[in-house]
Amino acid sequence: MLTQLINIIFNLESYLSPFLEHLGQSVYLILFILIFLETASLVFVFIPGQSFIFLASTLAASSTSGLNIWRLLLDFLLAAFFGNIVKYYIGQHFYRHRAIQSNAQSRFGRAQRLLNNHGEQIVIFGRFIPILGNLIPTIAGATKMNPLHYLFYTAIGVLVWVDVIAALGFFLGRLPIVHHNLTWFLLGFFIISALPSLIKTGWDHWKRPATEHN
Question: Distance of CA 64 to CAs 14, 47, 70, 178, Å?
Answer without folding.
Answer: 10, 26, 16, 15
